[in-house]
Design goal:
With 164 residues, the protein is α+β, with helices and mostly antiparallel strands. The chain has two helices and nine strands.
Length: 164
């Protein structure tokens, strides 16, 4: 007789307990999720909060201009940026890009940027290099006023955007 072999009654008992535990979890998880939000200071049902500053995320922002090294360059009409769910996506003017985005307090930091590599004639390519450089320049201070977003690098370069 093999002493490592489980008897059918022990295996059946374990399966029954596992099935009971699984059923309990499946019933309790939705109830726990419905009971509340685990974030400190989360809004409670029936309460509301008013933010004095419009949101930075979840909005399509059209790039208006970039000021770098004292020179302001107007953006092509197609240049835009959207930040949502920890990601950024948009267009430098000709080429599309994606990146990670970390919004903390009054700043945003973009990382792991990837862009298409279409060769676009003329001015858009020079503007794209300037915009890409500004967005990749460490944490950017953010200021949202009405329909305008301004991103400022540590060196004072500016990216000006307007809400779509």
């Amino acid at each position: 007789m093999n002493r490592y072999r489980h008897s059918p009654s022990r295996t059946d008992g374990r399966r029954a307990r596992s099935a009971s535990a699984l059923a309990a979890v499946l019933l309790l998880v939705p109830l726990a999720a419905a009971c509340g939000d685990d974030r400190a200071g989360a809004p409670r049902p029936g309460s509301a909060s008013v933010s004095a500053e419009p949101p930075l995320t979840g909005v399509r922002w059209n790039v208006v201009s970039v000021t770098a090294d004292g020179a302001t360059r107007r953006a092509p009409d197609s240049a835009h940026l959207t930040i949502a769910d920890g990601k950024a996506a948009g267009s430098y003017g000709c080429n599309e890009f994606t990146a990670t985005a970390v919004v903390e307090g009054g700043s945003v930091r973009f990382g792991d940027a990837r862009a298409t590599r279409m060769a676009c004639p003329g001015r858009p390519m020079a503007f794209e290099r300037t915009l890409a450089g500004a967005l990749a320049d460490g944490p950017l201070a953010t200021a949202v006023k009405g329909d305008t977003l301004t991103l400022r690098t540590a060196d004072g370069d500016l990216v000006r955007l307007t809400r779509s």
